[in-house]
Amino acid sequence: MVSADFAGRPGKKLVLFDVDDTLSPARQRASPEIIQLLRELRKQVAIGFVGGSDFVKISEQLSVGDFNVLEEFDFGFAENGLTAYRFGKPLESQSFIKMVGEKDYQELVNYILHYIADMNIPIKRGTFVEFRNGMINVSPIGRNATVQERHDFEAYDKEHHVRADFVEILREKFQRLNLTFAIGGQISFDVFPHGWDKTYCLRHVEKDDFEEIHFFGDKTSKGGNDYEIFSDSRTVGHTVKSPADTIRICTELFLS
Hints:
Blueprint: E1 13-17, H1 32-42, E2 46-50, H2 55-62, H3 69-72, E3 75-78, E4 83-86, E5 89-90, H4 96-100, H5 102-118, E6 129-131, E7 136-138, H6 147-160, H7 162-173, E8 179-184, E9 188-193, E10 212-217, H8 227-231, E11 236-239, H9 243-255
Parallel strand pairs: 1-2, 1-10, 2-3, 10-11
Antiparallel strand pairs: 3-4, 4-5, 6-7, 7-9, 8-9
């Protein structure tokens, strides 16, 4: 039986959303239409976000108008759930650096920076490695790229497989560290310990005993950062290509 906290919702279900290209364009603000969808949806089911970015970035994308991210989502999972909120209150968090150790972390980052320095791609900007609480984010072009530069790199990457090739080299070189490398968004990939993918967030909702947990994401193919939670036996996965797709499918499934 679903937790008493959610007994008043007609649907005893939880609907989880990836952020980039699911609720908003990558690193851009969500539309008023998405905000309206979320508010209508929450009258029927429990809702949550699960993103790879840190909470500050996710909040920037979803804080539209008077929409308060922590108050209007039942669950908030930043960094795959390593930073987690339930009804706006923080839950236990985890640390990448404690798990990996400073010595191995420095070896990994030094190798990444040397590799990027030798990489021949059309443009490079800044912030090639971003340290987060539960992972690191690696961007060959740099996270300081403009929106247009992100679009251009994404197209270049689809043709030249820059990130996929980089990931394969790191996976082989640092196999002993038991790390997962997950490509997500337009310009980067995440690095985190095995098991710290987006399925990590599911441990925070187990006690609520939802009848179904639905997940919506765009990078659901193997190697994408939505793949593990999309294909997990505990979830019903839905692949979307844009926020408009999310609105259409959610309306058909939960609001018709």
